[in-house]
Write a structure and sequence with these properties.
It contains nine helices and eleven strands. It is an alpha/beta fold.
Amino acid sequence: MKRQKPLLWGWVVALFVVGTATLLGAWHRYQRPTVAVFCYHEIAPNPTNSMTLEPIQFEAHLRWLKHSGFLTLTGEQLLRFLRGEWQPQEPAVVLTFDDGYEGVYNYAYPLLKRYGYCGIVFPVVAKIDMPRHLTWEQLREMVDSGVMEVGVHAYEMHCSLTRMLEKSPNPVKTLERIARDWTKAKWLLQTRLGVRVFLLAFPQGDYNEVLIALAKSLGFEGLFTADIGVNKLGEGTERIKRIGTSAPHTTVWRLRLRLLRAQWFPQSVNEQY
């Protein structure tokens, strides 16, 4: 009888593994299709802060995505997906770059071209042409190439807008300031680059219902947050979730873990800003 116990336990383990795999497969088949949105900031060698990813790591991300069969979507394709109007036939992601650092042009842009991918950059418009940031010429080249789209992050109000509203003695006037800031950024991008700007990444990923309504009233159709998760087919364009990828230690292994976590354990991080 003692010799039969290992055999019995082997059958138990085998049945558990097969049953778990079957359940996960069934769960996956009945889930709505999803698109992950990755959020990068600076791409540069020798990172000097926690928001910089080395080019070698960024290329490793792209290599893994390509090897795994992922497509990259444009902003319009993402919005059509989120409205339930269209879905890609292959797994897909969106690559976004906040703040408008010069490394997006120097490193991310040529790598995206090499791998046949596209991205969306959200600059702080007042910092364009300033040291360590993109220039208007660089932005125009990237946009004209079709490799990079552009959206609004801010003109100069790159801060926690909900905290500003909470502390303001006159929230109405503060909202008017925010509206002027976003409108100026949008107008400059459209005028200088000759493109339609319809995407907004909330500064610091920070938002509330009032800011959502304001952004929509100004003509922004896709609103990107810092909430962690993946985006499901037809779930709407007002609270687009993203996965942070900017830390220097974000290897492909860590990227895959973050993607897995976002799929299984979505989290609103809005309260942290």
